[in-house]
């Protein structure tokens, strides 16, 4: 009997952004080198786009269905999702429904599952983006209608409490929005702003909503307010410190 490791991500259709997911997948597989590895994307739209390009990536339900042939006595699922949000709730529901079909079916937690996770990630990002004179760091999160959206303002609070009052966290589809972030920036003496995705990948949101040339992009809005803007187009998944946090969750799940 064998063990299967499923790495579950939202996914991306941006080829250059895929490396952030792959880096986390490889780190997780290195934690369980004897397990059979499988990739899962939860976004139906992204799976469809990839299928049109000739690449098949399973959904969670498809992956579990393929693994019910009795070959695996343990299936371990580690998500790369950031929050206990809507995507994670859907994932958890699929796992609960399939539990009776497997001797052991284990589901890990998202990246930011507790206060310690927020503090750990803040330290990783503080080292990656050291403080610079007259410069603010603005992190773009995705945002959600789920209550877990409170993680974004909480993350900013963690930065400020550790002395990094130059760090601000906003969202594309939640709260706080970029206007609320700008309201905080104007209270400082910043002349430069670095923006970076607070997401696993630097995908469509990072390329367009953050760094695009449209007048409603974060770069354009901040530029119009008089700041010199630098956009960092790297997802957090490429950072070894972030990969280590995911690996710690996987280790906790196995133990």
Automatic annotation (TrEMBL):
Residues annotated to bind Co(2+): 142, 173, 205
GO molecular function list: metal ion binding; sirohydrochlorin cobaltochelatase activity
Active-site residues from the entry: 142 (proton acceptor)
One Gene Ontology biological process: anaerobic cobalamin biosynthetic process
Keywords (A to Z) from UniProt: Cobalt, Metal-binding
InterPro entries for the chain: Anaerobic_Co-chelatase (IPR010388)
Protein's UniProt name: Sirohydrochlorin cobaltochelatase
Native species: Merdimmobilis hominis
């Amino acid at each position: 009997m064998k063990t299967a490791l499923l790495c579950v991500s939202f996914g991306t259709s941006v080829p250059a952004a895929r490396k952030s997911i792959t880096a986390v997948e490889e780190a997780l597989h290195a934690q369980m080198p004897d397990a059979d590895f499988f990739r899962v994307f939860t976004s139906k739209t992204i799976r469809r786009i990839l299928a049109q390009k000739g690449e098949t990536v399973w959904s969670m339900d498809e992956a579990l269905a393929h693994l019910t042939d009795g070959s695996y006595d343990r299936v371990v699922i580690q998500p790369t999702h950031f929050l206990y949000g809507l995507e994670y709730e859907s994932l958890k529901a699929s796992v609960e429904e399939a539990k009776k079909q497997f001797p052991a079916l284990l589901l890990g937690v998202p990246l930011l599952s507790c206060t310690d996770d927020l503090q750990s990630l803040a330290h990783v990002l503080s080292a990656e983006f050291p403080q610079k004179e007259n410069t603010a760091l603005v992190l773009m999160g995705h945002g959600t209608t789920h209550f877990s959206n409170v993680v974004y303002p909480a993350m900013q609070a963690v930065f400020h409490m550790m002395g990094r009052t130059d760090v601000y966290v906003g969202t594309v589809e939640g709260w706080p929005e970029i206007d609320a972030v700008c309201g905080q920036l104007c209270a400082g003496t910043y002349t430069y702003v670095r923006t970076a995705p607070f997401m696993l990948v630097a995908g469509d949101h990072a390329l367009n909503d953050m760094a695009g040339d449209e007048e409603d992009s974060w770069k354009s809005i901040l530029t119009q307010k008089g700041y010199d803007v630098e956009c960092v187009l790297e997802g957090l998944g490429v950072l070894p410190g972030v990969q280590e946090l995911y690996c710690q969750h996987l280790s906790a799940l196995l133990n």
